[in-house]
Amino acid sequence: MLAIYFLAFLHVTIENETFHNIVWPLITIGSFAVFFLDMYILPLAYQTINALMTPVEATPPLITILLTSAVAITMVRYLQTRPAQPEDAPVFEQIHDQKRRAAQFPPPFPNGWYKLARSGDVKPGQVISVNGLGRAFAVFRGQVDEEVHVLDALCPHLGANIAIGGVVEGDAVKCPFHGWKFDGKSGQCIDIPYAKSVPNLARTKRWTHREFAGVIAVWYDAEEREPMYEPVPFPLKEGTFRRVGYRRGTLPMHIQDFAENASDWMHFSLLHDRLSIPILDRFFYIKHRTECNYNPETNPYNFVFNDYPTIHSIFSDAPIQAAEAQAQVEFTGPGGLVYFRFFTPRGEVAVVKSFLPVGEKGLQLTMEDEAYAEKTVPWFVAKHVVREANKAFDDDIFVWRHKTYMHKPLFVKEDTSMKQFRDYYKKFYSPNSRTYAHDRLDW
């Protein structure tokens, strides 16, 4: 039993694909093989070997090792049912494919709120450079007011990045190239060391932003309008949640693909019907019951999806009551900030997921996940919930990176939620939304 508990501990604490797909099944199968060998097979084997090969005392351990290895290797090969993924195409084919795919997608930067950084990433007197939305942002925290300021990072003088090598002085940031100093509250240049006066045109764009719940978010709008809605702070009760996970990565996809995926319930039963735990996924499967909440009259910028997954065994279609849970995905805007909530019998596990479009063609996103759990949720349960969510997301990525965008998809009656979500998403594009046509020039 101690060995089983130890294996369970390893499974939920080590976040490594090689470990979970190869090492963990090998250790697990080997452990059970040794157990059965020791309890049932070895006594008989010892009797047989002693009768036939009494002088050779070293033989039984060797045979045990060989048998265990053979069984483990055979079982691991059997468990690897997913077909091998095709190797990536040559670089020139990837570039050609990206251009062709990008031409089919909507504008790459929908209007909305996007996370630029975590509050803890920007200390008083510190400036960082963030690339996204076709821009370079200078994000800094003043030394006097200790508030966050967001400016265009490219100096209007000769184009140097004021966030790379720049220095925060008071509540302004100074360009490292010629020392031009820009006020964080207005973007106006307030000092040029070698000039007698500062031209009124010497200014850089100041971006509307918010700092809340440990997040620094910027408002992007192609028409340069004021925010159409406010970001919704994630309802984490202070003192009742603890952090249980974090991951960051770059994805080759359009942000609408991710957002739209939540409304595509029909793929859940095909792509997300398996547990992430090897061996157990042979005997248990998941069923999904879904619904959406959207009212364009009262809350046009909010869309909520609910999923009620149940776990079943291959021996009975009845759901396992102890494993009942609820998953909720809340969009406020186009998907720059999305809240995933998982309600278990022991409490809530939450993932704050953010996406920032960074590719010029709109097919590259910076993704960042921060996972939290109520203190009433056992640590290993929280880790398992996060791992299941990550597995489902990773399964989707494989499809996203090889698909294109259909402007007029062939919907059937059961695709109502997807059609409804597309209607919701249209409002985040406007006449001046940047399109692929802006990026036709190749050098």
Automatic annotation (TrEMBL):
Enzymatic class: oxidoreductase
Bilayer-spanning residue ranges: 22-46, 58-79
Cofactor: Fe cation
Record pathway: Hormone biosynthesis; Steroid hormone biosynthesis; dafachronic acid biosynthesis
GO biological process, one term: cholesterol metabolic process
Molecular function via GO: 2 iron, 2 sulfur cluster binding; cholesterol 7-desaturase [NAD(P)H] activity; metal ion binding
Listed EC numbers: 1.14.19.21
Keywords per UniProt: 2Fe-2S, Iron, Iron-sulfur, Membrane, Metal-binding, Oxidoreductase, Transmembrane, Transmembrane helix
Main location: membrane
UniProt keyword annotation of Transport present: no
GO cellular component terms given for this protein: cytoplasm; membrane
Subcellular location: Membrane
Keyword Membrane found: yes
Reactions catalysed: cholesterol + NADH + O2 + H(+) = 7-dehydrocholesterol + NAD(+) + 2 H2O; cholesterol + NADPH + O2 + H(+) = 7-dehydrocholesterol + NADP(+) + 2 H2O
Domain Rieske: 114-218
PROSITE patterns: RIESKE
Protein family per UniProt: Belongs to the cholesterol 7-desaturase family.
PANTHER family to which the protein is assigned, alphabetical: CHOLESTEROL 7-DESATURASE NVD, IRON-SULFUR DOMAIN CONTAINING PROTEIN
Protein known as: cholesterol 7-desaturase
Protein species of origin: Lobosporangium transversale
